[in-house]
Structure formats: C-alpha cells, structure tokens
Amino acid sequence: MKIQIINGPNLNLLGKREPDIYGNTSFAGYLDRLRKHYPDCDLQYFQSNHEGELIDKIHEVGFAFDGIVLNAGAYTHTSIAILDAIKAVTTPVIEVHISNVHAREDFRHKSVIAPACKGAVIGLGLASYEMAIRYFYEHSNPQK
Ligand code: DQA
Fold it and tell me: 9-30: per-residue pLDDT in tens?
C-alpha cells in the first residue's frame, strides 16, 4: 500500500525547533524507523513551507494513494485552501500533530482542516504519525 506523509511549514526544523515542544529527533531518523517497521508499506515523504506546494502534493497523490498523513503545521489553523484540497481528493487524510494543540494557545485549538479529515491524532509526539499509519495499514489489511 502507498501512504504519503506530508509535513507543512517549519517541520523541516524538527529536532532543532523548540525541542521542549517538538522533541530532539529529526524527521529523517524517525522516517527510517517507520520504513523498517512497515516494510510492505510504500511510505513517501514530502515537506514544504509553502501552502501551494502542500496543495499540489495533495492533488498529486490524492486519487492514487491509500492514505495521506498530514501535519499542516500552522496552516491547520488558517488554510481554507488546504481544507478544499482535502475535500477535492478521494484519498482519506488523517490530521496529525506532534504537540497537544489543545493544551497550547487558543489560536491552536481550532483546526479548519479537521472537517474534511478522516480523523486526527494529536499530542503523542512523533508517535502521532505512526498511529495514523497503523490505522491505514490495519484497515487495508484487516487480518493484521
Ligand atoms: C503542530 C502544531 C501547530 O500549531 C504548529 O503551528 C506546528 C506544529 C504540531 O505538530 O504540533 O507547526 O502542527
């Protein structure tokens, strides 16, 4: 099965950025571990700091892949354009966040993309991504 992970703005700095909130691990190292853990899963990764590039990637994979795991970063709280992109495609999208956005500033409590997503995994650190991948994996391989 094919799963696309998409990270939005500032998530290229994972491991360096506010480590008290986002941890000390770079996404590259975590992705290696995920790929070893799910060897029969084609896990693709894309990161961009640009809203339009995130939308282009959702369009590109959104009719062919089995799942999209999306951390839209701060665009989560503002981007009607990403909401519309998720609505436009057929591939289900799971929203993920590393931090518990509900325990942070008020402006992080609202996700404008949530209504178009299958569900959300929030606040489990990098394990949020694995939980979302596991959902797609188990639901396309019901015997696992
Ligand atoms: C985040 C939470 C957002 O509020 C923030 O803007 C991010 C990261 C998270 O993964 O916890 O960039 O999506």
Answer: 999 999 999 999 999 999 999 9
The residues that are catalytic are 22, 97
Domain count, the chain: 1
Q: Which of 77, 95, 108 to mutate to test the pocket of ligand 1 (most atoms within 8 A of CB)?
A: 108
Q: What is the CATH number of the domain that holds 79?
A: 3.40.50.9100
pLDDT of residue 23: 92
List Cα–Cα distances, 49 to 46, 65, 109, in angstroms. 10, 22, 21
Q: Is 60 exceeded by the pLDDT of residue 123?
A: yes
Q: Which atom of ligand 1 is nearest to the CA of 128?
A: 10
The boundaries of the domain holding residue 66 are: 2-140
| Contact of 96 with 120, CB cutoff 8 Å | yes
Say how far apart CA 73 and CA 89 lie, in whole Å.
20
Q: What is the DSSP string of 85-107?
A: HHHH-SS-EEEEESS-GGGS-GG
Residues 6+ apart with CB under 8 A from 18: none
**Residue 101 CB less than 6 A away from ligand 1:** yes
